[in-house]
Amino acid sequence: MPRIEDVAEKAGVSVTTVSRVLNNRGYISEKTRNKVYQVMKELNYQPNEMARALFRRKSNMIGLIIPAVSHPFFSELAYYLEYYADQQGYKLLLCNSNRNIAKERKYIEMLKKNQVDAIIMGSSVLDIEHYQNLDLPIVSFDRTVAENIPIVTSDNLMGGKLATRLLIEKGCKHPAYIYRGIGGPHHRALLASARAQGYDEELAVAGIEPIHLQLDISDDDQPGNPSEVVHFLAEHPEIDGVFASSDVIAAEVIQACHQLNKNIPKDIKIIGYDDVKIASLVSPQLTTIRQPIREMGECTIELVVKQLEGGEVPQINSFPVALIERETT
Fold first, then answer.
1. FRET pair for 1, CA 20 to 30 Å: which of 28, 66, 79, 311?
2. What values do phi and psi take at 315, rounded to 5?
3. The domain at 156-291 falls in which architecture?
4. What is the pLDDT of residue 186?
5. What are the domain boundaries of the chain?
6. Is residue 271 helix, strand or coil?
7. Domain 61-152+294-319 has CATH 3.40.50.2300
8. pTM value?
9. Which of 119-123, 145-149, 256-260 has the highest mean pLDDT?
10. Three-class SS of residue 249?
């Protein structure tokens, strides 16, 4: 594999001159620059990106920490984050934390060693000081990390209200809210908990007693064995509506209803949250609350870049949600 010294020797210049060409620093004549590029091409020389990052003190890399890229919501989010990061000249380093404290800590150390320019937090189970001591621009997605760390979120409270209002309008007398916990004290940092608040508030106005079901913690949040939901619905045959905190959980509810021979939407109506692709692929197609994932991803990258350029950014960046009605209601 050719080295920078080989390029310098064949081009008849110093190693420092080649380095300046690679990093676009200092005055280099057009003739010399073209000569260095020509030799690099002839030798098939590939610059060491980490060495260049050390020289420039800038890696053009952004760390992304999420619970699991296999989850449909985070998969779509990661897609848009990568797209808009690339538009700005940045690459993403993807880290799946699985909401594991030890794993998240290791990823933080790995990102520091790789000299990322910034970090996007889609999962935070470590204590706040781990992030405040990083001395890096950070953007948090849908969770509170610290007062000085900007947040990108959607109007979770309104999402909960819109879903519950529709269930009530459709005649549901015993709607239930089903969500999956993440364990530990960090659940309170999730802004998505406002979905349950919206559900509770709308039922209070209607004079209906709220019913909550917290599913067992799942490492990957993938649609799994719906036995918990089957057992719950079998024990509570009066339930005629479900607001699920995600489309993935709503898909589990649909599967459970199939097992119990419950007709959707005649016997039970179901509403999810996110409007990821699975919402229109399940049968019947899922009514859900749409988060503007593309726009939220674009905003997240804009906040990162603005911080890197020394600009000030707003603390809370909240996007409106929309009710998308399909076949489950």
1. 28
2. -70, -50
3. 3-Layer(aba) Sandwich (3.40)
4. 47
5. 4-56, 61-152+294-319, 156-291
6. strand
7. yes
8. 0.79
9. 256-260
10. helix
